[in-house]
Amino acid sequence: MPRWGASGPCTPTSTLGPTGTQTSTRHGSTARCCLPGNSFYWKTHGMDITSTIREVVPGQRLVWGGPAGGIDGVHVWTFEQTGSQVTVRTEESWSGAPVDAAPQQLGQALEQSLTTWFAGMKTRTERTD
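The structure assignment produced for this chain is given below.
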């Protein structure tokens, strides 16, 4: 289960995120704590991104997002624990002029990115070492 609370970094990129799971994604500085209004910085596909945590329901839901390259991304992650397993579900949306100009291509890019990201996160969290 992701860490929640007021001490230590707790962002999608530090707790669950892409570091080590997507070759194209790296995170930079993280929010001091996982609270709405706090921002963290990361990079993917050559874009520097500032994301802001919008909503936190500890152990259940994390909403974060922000603009990058003319696209406004919103990420809603929900967590469901069953025994020792945690299922992460995601709702993602992109909007903005680039999306309006190429909705099919960017929709495919978003789906591919999420598939890679979550497959890597699954592999990372299931490691026993």
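Interim note for the steering committee: The chain has three helices and six strands. The helical segments are 12-16, 97-101, 103-126.
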